[in-house]
Amino acid sequence: MLKRYLLAPGPTPVPPEALLAMAMPIIHHRSPDFLPVLDSAKKGLQWLCQTKNDVLILCSTGTGGMVGAVNNFFSPGDKALVVNAGNFGERWTKICKAYNLSVEEIKIDWGRAVNPEDVDSALKKDPSIKGVFVQASETSTGVYHDIKTLASIVRKYENTILVVDAISALVAHDLRMDEWGIDVLIGGSQKGLMLPPGLAFVGVSDKAWKFADKAKSPKFYFNFKKEREALAKNQTSFTSPVTLIIGLNESLKILRTEGLENAFNRHERLSRATREAIKALGLDMFTKESPSYAVTAINAPAGFDGQEIYKNLRVKYGITAAGGQGQAKGKIFRIAHLGYAGTFDVITAIAAVEMVLKGMGHPLKLGTGVAVAQELLMV
């Protein structure tokens, strides 16, 4: 028997409380029984996103939230500034172009974070830019972008909104939507919120809702105005993913018990222990600066294939981590410490990496990285 461990940056493990809640008999999405369920989820998401405004709940993956963030607030021909620093930055560009936005990119070497001054300069040069699109945590590179500073820049422009893909950052990082001035904040269920895939969340500022009044891009399923109207009645526009929303309430209950600050600190601590343990093994980080607390991206040792490391973790030791994407495929492997993750998830991951690398012929002393992680994670 090979016991399985899920240490990928999505899907992430689901707590037993949420699994048990989702195993209960299904209820109808238009019945009175469901109204308080959605009401509780709605309020919990506002708490998590630190906003007084609605956080829409969509039956889709996080990419559906990204699509909705383009077609609900922009019109064909509108200018978009995209921070392209990884696989998901590239996705912003593809979605914007699919809806015929005029895209300007700030291209950044993978593994590095955007310099907010570059965004500031681009907006000063062309104030007609309607939207700035960025990831909070670029999952493919393990980089966190400085959302607080970016928001402080964009909020100075009355006709520009900041759209943040926080799909892998939500719960791992402190993202203060109202205080900082984030206009559109997108999350997904299968990351920090510790649920199966299938839900996207979109927080929308008052400023962004004004953009929605003027947007002319086509929309039907992802129609945020209709979703907002439905949410006011504790409903969704179409069939609600009832089981997932029931599970969402359980996950939010767990996070409320832990507390937001404690959740952020836990992710930072797990991230730091992972990085330091990996460095102790003589490996280099793919992430050159501003590491994400959700996932650690690691360069494969010279002469080794990152995809083979990822494959061996899964096949030999039952650990599903992640390989590289796009231009980083074969060069890196990634370990997540996101959502329902704790001390021994990191220690297990580091122990397995040591065993895989030694088994592939890389010289190291077993236990070196584990010892570092243990020291940093002791309470």
TrEMBL record:
Q: Name one Pfam family in it.
A: Aminotran_5
Gene3D superfamilies assigned: Aspartate Aminotransferase, domain 1 (3.90.1150.10), Type I PLP-dependent aspartate aminotransferase-like (Major domain) (3.40.640.10)
Indicate whether Cytoplasm appears among the record's keywords. no
Query: Record-annotated residues binding substrate?
Result: 334
The catalytic activity of this protein is classed by the Enzyme Commission as: 2.6.1.45
| InterPro entries named among the record's database cross-references | Aminotrans_V_dom, Aminotrans_V_PyrdxlP_BS, PyrdxlP-dep_Trfase, PyrdxlP-dep_Trfase_major, PyrdxlP-dep_Trfase_small, SP_NH2Trfase/AEP_transaminase
Enumerate the cofactors the protein uses: pyridoxal 5'-phosphate
The record's annotation in PANTHER family points to:
ALANINE--GLYOXYLATE AMINOTRANSFERASE, AMINOTRANSFERASE CLASS V
Descriptive protein name: Serine-glyoxylate transaminase
**Species:** Candidatus Sulfobium mesophilum
